[in-house]
Design goal:
179 residues; mainly alpha; Heme Oxygenase, Chain A
Amino acid sequence: MKLRAATRAAHERVDRLGESFDLASPAGYRAFLRGHGAALPGLERRLEAAGVGRLLSDWPSRRRTGVLLQDLAAVAAAPPEPVASPGLHTRAQLMGALYVLEGSRLGGAYLRRRLAQSQPDAPAAYLAHGAGEPLWRTFVEWLGAQTPSPAEEATAIAAADATFATFETGFRQAAREAA
């Protein structure tokens, strides 16, 4: 699939917004978590309503809403107002959304190291979720075994872009609230 190349611009926008939060500051980290909290729970609910467990049998171990809410509580932040999530109904849409969510775990590992340098006692269960597990590798293997038609591939790309846009909206909302 061409997801990585096709969604590069959306991915870079979200990365820039995420990196704009000062993880060295408790307030900046709280806002960062709130940005994720505005996007992730709704996306995971949409995936579950569409039957993601039928596609990925290990879905329960991939779900991160619980640890995100724990970290939000630990930094004394209420769960934020959720932003709108894209409709996810087809296998192709699920593939696109999952690509973004599973890939974000890789970025989380990098951010966890940055956070540990400046705030070693900060709660980081969300950023550490899946550490030491082969979640990305098994996801990429699963994704590579899919044989989408050209129309399904276009649908997966559109869903990935919409998922990135959900995080972009969540980050913008969190930045406004923190200002």
